[in-house]
């Protein structure tokens, strides 16, 4: 292996180690999960979210910082969307390529220049980046993209009302309760049960023994809402 190849391999190993360290640090944080439908509504310059490699980032401060510049246009074009194809999944860094003319390894940004992507040498304009690029900066992280969204029905036994909501498979019942508060501000005054069993609010639906029926429904070409598990809410008589 020549010296150049050795250097590239060494840099790749450093990038992978850096990415894994960033990911490990984020996983230690108590951050929520979001469905793609929740991310897509944040699609304006005043409220700009993107997701990539399983992580959701709020880039609104970055949009404000680069307002009116050419570099921010690709991010605004993808606001509310997933941009994982911009990044190398092994390193978490911007995808690179070998420039066909100079033979130099450079960032590949066919959608246009983006913030913190440096011009690569040999150019007289090249300067080292003096801060962490936004795709590695945990400041922008607001949560994770769910691996699987699922549908549940929530029935209020006292009021005899029922709603159907989409949740993340990683959501605990506490998180689902928080989602339900917009529909029932007194949801904390109820005991949550499934098929007569009291549910552990600190566990997910799956951990509470409520399997996701969607994979089996799709396997036999039935719609996702053909069968929806129902959570029963029983009033505790502690309404304040």
Give the topology.
Blueprint: H1 3-27, E1 33-34, H2 36-40, E2 43-44, E3 47-52, E4 55-58, H3 60-65, H4 73-77, E5 96-98, E6 105-107, E7 141-145, E8 149-156, E9 161-168, H5 173-180, E10 190-194, E11 197-198, H6 214-219, E12 230-235
Parallel strand pairs: 1-7, 8-12
Antiparallel strand pairs: 2-3, 3-4, 4-7, 5-6, 8-9, 10-11, 10-12
Describe this structure in words.
The strands form three sheets. This protein has a five-stranded mixed β-sheet. Residues 3-9 and 11-18 have low confidence and may be disordered. 18% of the residues are buried. The chain has two domains: 1-145, Cytochrome b5-like heme/steroid binding domain (Flavocytochrome B2, Chain A, domain 1); 149-235, Phosphatidylinositol 3-kinase Catalytic Subunit, Chain A, domain 1 (Ubiquitin-like (UB roll), Roll). 23% of the residues lie in helices and 22% in strands. Strand 2 and strand 3 (47-52) form a beta hairpin. It starts with a helix and ends in a 5-residue tail after the last strand. With 240 residues, it is of the alpha+beta class. The chain is elongated and about 70 Å long. Its main location: cytoplasm. Keywords: Cell projection, Cytoplasm, Cytoskeleton, Heme, Iron, Metal-binding. Residues 31-96 form the Cytochrome b5 heme-binding domain.
């Amino acid at each position: 292996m020549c010296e150049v190849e050795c250097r590239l391999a060494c840099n790749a190993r450093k990038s992978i180690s850096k990415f894994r360290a960033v990911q490990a640090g984020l996983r230690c944080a108590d951050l929520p999960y979001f469905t793609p439908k929740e991310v897509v509504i944040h699609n304006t310059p005043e409220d700009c979210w993107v997701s990539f490699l399983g992580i959701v980032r709020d880039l609104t401060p970055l949009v404000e910082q680069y307002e009116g510049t050419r570099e921010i246009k690709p991010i605004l074009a993808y606001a509310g969307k997933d941009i994982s194809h911009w990044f190398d999944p092994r390193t978490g860094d911007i995808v690179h390529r070998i420039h066909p003319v100079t033979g130099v390894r450079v960032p590949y940004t066919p959608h246009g220049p983006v913030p913190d992507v440096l011009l690569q040498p040999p150019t007289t304009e090249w300067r080292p980046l003096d801060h962490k690029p936004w795709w590695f900066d945990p400041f922008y992280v607001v949560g994770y993209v769910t691996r699987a969204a699922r549908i549940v029905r929530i029935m209020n036994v006292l009021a005899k009302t029922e709603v159907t909501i989409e949740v993340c498979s990683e959501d605990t019942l506490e998180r689902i309760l928080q989602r339900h508060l917009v529909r029932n501000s007194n949801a904390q005054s109820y005991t949550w049960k499934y098929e007569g069993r009291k549910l552990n609010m600190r566990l997910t639906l799956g951990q509470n023994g409520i399997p996701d029926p969607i994979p089996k429904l799709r396997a036999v070409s039935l719609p996702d809402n053909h069968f929806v598990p129902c959570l029963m809410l029983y009033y505790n008589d502690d309404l304040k």
